[in-house]
Amino acid sequence: MRLKFPALLFIILFSCTTKESNQNLEDEIISLQTAKNGLDSILQFSNLRKASEIIIKNNDIKDSLKAENNFLLGSYFRTKGKLDSAAIYFHAATQLVDTITNIRQTKYFRQTIDTYWAQGKYGDATAVNELFFNYLSETKNNLWLSLYYYHTSLISASEGDYETALFNNKKRIELLKISKSNLELVPALLSQALYIYRVSKDKEIPYKLFDSIIKGDSILTYDLKRQVYGNYGVYNYYDGNYESAIKNYLIGLKNVHQINNANDKNDLLATSYANISEAYIEISNYELAKKYLDSIELLGIENIDTKYQKSFLKYKARLAFKTSKNPEDALKYVDTIFKYRDKSYAEKYNQELVSLKIAIKGEALLKESKQAEEVKNLKLQNRILFLIFFIILLSLLGYTFQRRKKIAFKKQNLFMQQRLLRSQMNPHFMYNTLYAIQKTIKKDQNAAVSYLNKFSRLLRLILENSTHNFVLLNKEIECLQEYLELKLMRASTSFTYDISFINLNKDDLIFIPPMLIQPFIENSLEHGFKNIDYTGDIKIELSKKDEFISCKIVDNGKGLSDPKLTIKNSISIKLIKEYIYNATKQKLLIINNPAANTQGVVITFLIPYKLTENDESHYHR
Predict the structure, then answer these.
(1) Which of 352-366, 416-430, 542-556: highest mean pLDDT?
(2) Quick check: 301 and 312 in contact, CB under 8 A?
(3) 443-449: long-range contacts at Cβ-Cβ below 8 A with a sequence spacing of 24 or more?
(4) How many CB atoms are located within 10 Å of the residue 277 CB?
(5) Which domain range does residue 417 map to?
């Protein structure tokens, strides 16, 4: 007993000290999370990072505090427009919830789903929503359950399935009526009108609903009034009733001004200004259209979401085409799109670098925490036996950690190389096209307008595809066809092209990296067909080959003057070669056409593909 009692007393005292220490740490975390920093978002972020460091160093911190810290970090990044980081932290908050007992926890799930939805990641949004539903099955809370059906209908509508959206929104309305949540019922009814209109094309139902809601608008909040009148204006606009659309847009704008403490108020104002200016352009009131577009500029275009920036620039270009005698005035807004796109790329790369630094720091802190805990355990156990066990365990953990780190680094390096490839290719192609438009304007302004319209469609496809590591095969083929059709309009040498598929279909659910094929096609057009006196021809053949898609490009151009040389080695071609080799372990092959009496070049290479868009998944192997 003499040996055991002191040890037992030590353990009791140590346990009490540990509990007191944890309580002090948790109080410090709460203080950091709830600090009122006013408008100083940098200080707010600094406090949350300090709280994260405390949590990383101490494994015994409550899950509720960990979840709240992740949620607050996600909210910070969401207000900054950094959706990738916001989604990571929001999702981490939901993973620390095992049952829903309060409305704060529902916000964790709602923000996670909304952020994935805003990114177009509908699969991820659906997965989190289903987890949310499983937790709600035990609560029997109709108001919370209505959120599940709201997100289900929203995702279905975004995917174009309006019948499913209509069905789930009806469930949402039923639950809101049971819970007597009248204010939440209004947006649900607005969504119902839209879905009914999409399914049946019945215009009377939306208008009757708007009129009935407007009769009782005195009980609505400013945000709900903004939604009602704004949606009413949209229906007016698409019916060609532009005067009524403007009237309702203006009422909606008035209510936006009355909303206080809204993080997205600039976006709401920009939406209203853009809608009003668009309607004024339709009735040829260009002076007032310009006034409301100028209002967006006063907000600071950098202070609004990128999708509203694009709308603003589009309407500015449209107004310039309507009012300016010189089409080059409109062209400068197209150039502005590229500047903002380049800025977006830069911000994304900087964000990834910051995230990498944070991850490295977190790993270091975690390692220190484990080592400190192991030292404490050594003092309580038999030193010799535990030391042997610790060395063996540390060796295994070190080996596993280094192996996983090596795999993760290799995978991240591949994605970063792919992003760098796109960042090099996109400006090169776009600026060449802008130069062609400028030359066409001097010769034929009508042709330039037609060319610019086609280029706008191609630009939309390229911008959509370039934000993803993998895109659907049919989207990439559509982008390639748009590019070829655009080149046909201004090609100095006539040419034909053909895209064929072997043992796969264009519409198969297959995802491939974007912008891998286009640079080789551009090289054939710009160099292979240069100064030839016959019709050029390009054949593109895609087929499944084991774990990859095989791409074969054949042209009948001048061929390679020296068989030992490859085609013009631009930066984009070099990057593609490196990327393809890293992804497939097979080299890209470029040779003169081996067929007898045939000129031209044959290019063959393998393309990695996946069956899901999720960038964190491995390739299909």
Answers:
(1) 542-556
(2) yes
(3) 445/327, 447/489, 448/327, 449/321, 449/327
(4) 29
(5) 381-607
We report the CATH number of the domain holding residue 449 as: 3.30.565.10
Contact present, 520 and 553 (Cβ < 8 Å): yes
Question: Angle, nearest 10°, between helix axes 122-136 and 103-118?
Answer: 160
Q: How confident is the model at residue 349 (pLDDT cuts 50, 70, 90)?
A: very low
- DSSP class of residue 600? S
Number of domains making up the chain: 2
Highest mean pLDDT range out of 322-326, 330-334, 409-413? 322-326
Separation of alpha carbons 46 and 76, rounded Å: 11
Instruction: Give the pLDDT confidence score for residue 398 in this predicted structure.
Output: 77
Give CA 567 to chain center in angstroms. 35
C-alpha R_g of the chain: 30
- Residues in contact with 206: Cβ distance below 8 Å, sequence separation at least 6, in sequence order: 193, 194, 196, 197, 235
Average pLDDT over residues 415-443: 60
The answer on pLDDT for 378 being more than 90 is: no
Burial 325-362 (b: 16+ CB within 10 A, else e): eebeebbebbebbbeebeebbeeeeeebeeeeeeeeee
Residue listed under structure tokens 């890209």:
588
What does pTM read for this prediction?
0.49
Beta strands in 167-321 (DSSP E): none
Give CA–CA dist 92/68, Å, rounded: 10
Among the residue ranges 37-46, 326-335, 481-490, the one predicted with the least confidence is 326-335
- In a domain? residue 186: yes
Task: Using the 3D structure, point to which of 202, 221, 237 is the last residue of a domain.
Answer: 202
441 touches 448 (CB < 8 A): yes
Q: Are 249 and 274 in contact (CB under 8 A)?
A: no
Instruction: Please identify which residue in the block is written with the tokens 């940098």.
Output: 42
CB crowding 401-411: b at 16 or more within 10 Å, else e: eeeeeeeeeee
Give the separation between CA 453 and CA 460, rounded to whole angstroms: 11
Tokens at residue 114, please? 């909304």
